[in-house]
Recover the amino acids of this structure.
């Protein structure tokens, strides 16, 4: 970054935040996992959603207040529905708010949705600068947002061994069992990201189309 005359501030800030946040959460998780109150767990999930929303919109230059509400609704619906399905129907966790299950899964789900919404939002904004067709911009942005997800699906097992699967194998779990859990995780991340991106782009497209329809009427 320095050699190519790019600002290294973002990289340094991101690295510093990563170190500080992981150190803090390492201590906090000990307390969180001991909590047996659904209200506290839901409050923590809400904080995670708000932070994910703000980070997802970071690359978008012309973001407005409605952009935050769109991102929050998209990640909450896409991530929340996927998380609920996994917790209740796949893992059958008892109780559903079991901290050492829902918090790690929520982190993975919201992060996947956040990254995809971020890519889609930035691409959608860029496409609108080159075309007046909102539907075309929406489709192009959706395709671009799914590229990292599909690359991961194509590479897993051949190019990469995911962290969760590797960690389970290191801890002595059978590779066949580790693979089953990893399949659930990969489907979970892809589903949450795809649904969140679709909701965000549809809400954003509706907003742009509403503006375009209002302009001729004013004239």
């Amino acid at each position: 970054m320095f050699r190519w005359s790019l600002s290294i501030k973002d990289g340094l800030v991101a690295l510093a935040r990563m170190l500080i946040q992981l150190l803090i959460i390492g201590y906090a998780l000990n307390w969180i996992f001991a909590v047996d109150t659904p209200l506290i767990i839901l409050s923590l999930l809400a904080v995670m959603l708000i932070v994910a929303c703000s980070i997802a919109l970071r690359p978008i230059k012309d973001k407005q207040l409605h952009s935050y509400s769109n991102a929050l609704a998209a990640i909450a619906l896409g991530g929340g529905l996927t998380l609920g399905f996994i917790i209740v129907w796949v893992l059958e966790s008892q109780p559903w708010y079991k901290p050492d299950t829902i918090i790690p899964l929520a982190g993975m789900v919201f992060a996947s949705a956040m990254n995809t919404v971020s890519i889609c939002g930035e691409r959608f904004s860029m496409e609108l600068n080159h075309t007046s067709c909102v539907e075309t911009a929406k489709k192009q942005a959706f395709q671009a947002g799914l590229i990292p997800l599909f690359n991961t699906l194509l590479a897993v097992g051949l190019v990469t061994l995911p962290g969760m699967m590797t960690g389970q194998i290191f801890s002595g779990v059978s590779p066949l069992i580790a693979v089953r859990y990893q399949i659930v995780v990969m489907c979970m991340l892809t589903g949450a990201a795809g649904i969140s991106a679709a909701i965000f782009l549809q809400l954003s497209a509706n907003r742009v189309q509403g503006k375009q329809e209002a302009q001729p009427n004013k004239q």
